[in-house]
Write a structure and sequence with these properties.
This protein has 240 residues and is α/β, with parallel strands linked by helices. It has helices at 34-38, 50-60, 68-71, 76-84, 112-116, 120-123, 135-154, 173-185, 203-215, and strands at residues 28-29, 63-66, 91-95, 105-106, 127-128, 158-164, 191-194. It has nine helices and seven strands, in the order E-H-H-E-H-H-E-E-H-H-E-H-E-H-E-H.
């Protein structure tokens, strides 16, 4: 873990974290996490459905991450159900749909009418990227994702939307523009940015990256993960 003294000249040292205060909430990525269900006795035997497990989980933790929304876009109906099944102060952090973070999305995961509107050569593929969609369908994808989360946001239960970018998403002007566009496309939500390519946090780029995130009011996601790979990001504790 990076350490720094209070007199450090580096603006993104650990000493800067204390300048932004807030509640610290601890939770688990998904109440349907297999290790919770199959490899532990966390859930009582009576909690057999996703609904029962969410209600029980929310009685023990104040926050969770929804990662199923990475694979299939969320719906307003699901947002409404999550609201009903959790206490008033419970918080959901929601992972952005793969299509929105330059990952390949399974073509079958798209909204039915959007899928039917794809060019024939795109619709025939197993996976689809945002860049292969016509402009009007790009607009529709952003709008529908945002609309689906509005019930959570309106209820005060939406924490952050996690924008987890792929390992080939390197630091570049084009990719920074995409991050800024995401902020413009989802103006009502708090977007949190997670990188999976080391270039963003290499010493020569670190201040540029964190300065960019701070300028756009985008929290940096610090992950404690194995090091030594192109996809490795060091655990830099910086509040942006």
């Amino acid at each position: 873990m990076q350490t720094a003294s209070a007199s450090s000249s580096r603006p993104w040292s650990c000493s800067a974290v204390g300048s932004k205060r807030g509640r610290i909430l601890c939770g688990i990525s998904a109440w349907t996490e297999p290790t919770l269900i199959k490899e532990s006795d966390f859930y009582p035997s009576s909690a057999r459905s996703a609904e029962d497990r969410l209600k029980f989980y929310a009685s023990k933790f104040p926050i969770t991450e929804v990662d199923s929304t990475y694979y299939f876009p969320p719906s307003e109906r699901n947002s409404a159900l999550w609201i009903e099944r959790t206490p008033r102060e419970f918080v959901f952090n929601v992972k952005a749909y793969a299509l929105l973070t330059q990952h390949p999305a399974k073509t079958e995961s798209l909204w039915k009418d959007v899928r039917e509107g794809l060019p024939e050569e795109v619709a025939a593929k197993k996976n689809v990227y945002m860049d292969s969609l016509p402009d009007e369908l790009k607009d529709e994808a952003w709008q529908r994702f945002g609309d689906a989360l509005m019930p959570l946001h309106s209820a005060g239960k939406l924490g952050a939307v996690l924008m987890q970018f792929p390992q080939w998403f390197v630091i570049s002007r084009k990719n920074k523009d995409h991050i800024a566009e995401a902020k413009e496309r989802l103006p009502n939500f708090r977007l949190a940015i997670e990188f999976r390519h080391k270039s963003w946090m290499e010493p020569r780029n670190r201040e540029e990256t964190l300065g960019f995130l701070e300028h756009h009011d985008l929290p940096f996601v610090c992950v404690d993960e194995p090091q030594g790979f192109d996809s490795s990001i060091p655990p830099v504790a910086a509040a942006t």
